[in-house]
Specification:
- By secondary structure, the protein is an all-alpha fold.
- About 90% of the residues lie in helices and about 0% in strands.
- The chain has five helices and no strands.
- The longest helix has 27 residues.
- It is elongated, with a radius of gyration of 18 Å.
């Protein structure tokens, strides 16, 4: 049960950061980008339960739950990486650069 704490914290941190990052990165197309992210997340949610039974059989309950907790702790760093490197990531995206140029053109 203790593995659920870092899992829940990491899930919320990643989910909230991802939504904010998508809105910042795709601006006027953010609804479509969020729909694509939601669809991808839902497809993963369908496929992932098929891996749980073999994981718990091979690792045992304690290690399988610990593994999920450790992965969650590692992934919990992602939101802070978005804060630190988000602008750089967007600058390296051809699509985001074009959106910024379009926005600049409309404003001035």
């Amino acid at each position: 049960m203790a593995a659920a704490i870092p899992f829940g914290i990491a899930y919320l941190l990643i989910f909230m950061a991802l939504l904010n990052y998508i809105v910042d990165a795709y601006e006027i197309f953010s609804a479509s980008a969020m729909a694509a992210a939601s669809c991808s997340r839902s497809m993963l949610a369908v496929a992932l339960p098929f891996a749980t039974a073999p994981m718990y059989e091979r690792l045992g309950i304690a290690w399988a739950c610990s593994l999920l907790g450790f992965i969650s702790i590692l992934l919990g760093v992602i939101p802070f990486m978005f804060l630190r490197y988000g602008a750089t990531i967007r600058q390296n995206s051809k699509f985001c650069r074009e959106l910024a140029a379009r926005k600049e053109k409309q404003q001035g």
